[in-house]
Amino acid sequence: MTDLIEKLEKDATSSSEGASLLPTREEEKAILLDEVWNYSRTPFMRILADFLCCAPDPEAIKEFANKSPDRWAQALLLVGKMAGYHEKLLVEKNVVHQIHMLGDSELEERLAELEKEMGANAPILDLEVSYADE
Question: Which residues, including other chains, have CB under 8 Å from residue 42's CB and lie 6 or more apart?
Answer without folding.
Answer: 35, 133
